[in-house]
């Protein structure tokens, strides 16, 4: 079946959550896409989100160089969430850590799992 | 630092997205939690979501037996998304597939990656 980004289920704001996972299995981040950025991601092979804070297209790594090259896009059963398998250049997180999920909850306390990269 | 679920950033509806990943690295699903279900998940060790369609607490696997036992909860840099590392009993998806992300987009077409489990 041909994939049509218009068939995804977007929020009232026209957004769909997108999870980025690297080829080694690490979950790197979760951000949001619009129909337009889903199309751009598939067309260019470079993962492109929608920045809710800036209300603008966010070509991941455009300024930092920490681009995400799309290996495969996946759609969930409800068609309201995307999973991007990516080749991540450098750290994914704006804190310079590999993943945004660097804080674990252990015995009721926050534990930092990874340090910023040099 | 003590973890306080009240410090997470919830939507206007009081929700936070939660990604479930199994211990083998597979991303299983994305659903939503409330502050109350974050607390219940940590207290019980069984992953509990908020069902937006039913507007009710959703104790994953309560009727199907396909429970998610929490191995570790992680918080992202913006404190507006959670990652649950889980031990998944049976399939995570309501279609009886291991993961909800069973559809890949390849060359513009939808390709089914996994079949329902018996």
Give a nutshell description of this structure:
Chains A, B: It is found in: Cytoplasm. Chain A has 118 residues and is mainly beta. Chain A has a single domain, classed as Ubiquitin-like (UB roll).
Please describe the structure with a list of short key phrases separated by commas or semicolons:
homodimer; 118 residues; mainly beta; Ubiquitin-like (UB roll); 4-stranded mixed β-sheet; two-stranded antiparallel ribbon; 8 strands; 38% strand
Question: Please, could you describe this protein's structure?
Answer:
2 copies of one chain form a homodimer. The first copy, chain A, contains 1 helix and 8 strands, in the order ββαββββββ. In chain A, the strands form 3 sheets. Chain A has a 4-stranded mixed sheet with strand order 2-1-6-5. Chain A has a single domain (5-90), classed as Roll (Ubiquitin-like (UB roll)), CATH 3.10.20.810. With 118 residues, chain A is mainly beta. Chain A is globular and about 45 Å long. Chain A has one helix spanning 35-44, and strands spanning 16-22, 27-33, 48-51, 56-59, 68-75, 82-88, 103-106, 109-112. The model of chain A has no long low-confidence stretch (mean pLDDT 97). The A-B interface holds A 1-3, 17, 19, 21, 24-27, 29-30, 42, 72-78, 81, 83, 93-95, 97, 100-106, 108-110, 113 and B 1-3, 17, 19, 21, 24-27, 29-30, 42, 72-78, 81, 83, 93-95, 97, 100-106, 108-110, 113. Strand 7 (103-106) of chain A pairs antiparallel with strand 5 (68-75) of chain B. Chains A, B: InterPro entries: PRA-CH (IPR026660), PRib_AMP_CycHydrolase_dom (IPR002496), PRib_AMP_CycHydrolase_sf (IPR038019). Chains A, B: One of its GO terms (molecular function) is phosphoribosyl-AMP cyclohydrolase activity. Chains A, B: Its EC number is 3.5.4.19. Chains A, B: Keywords: Amino-acid biosynthesis, Cytoplasm, Histidine biosynthesis, Hydrolase, Magnesium, Metal-binding, Zinc. Chains A, B: Pfam families: PRA-CH (PF01502).
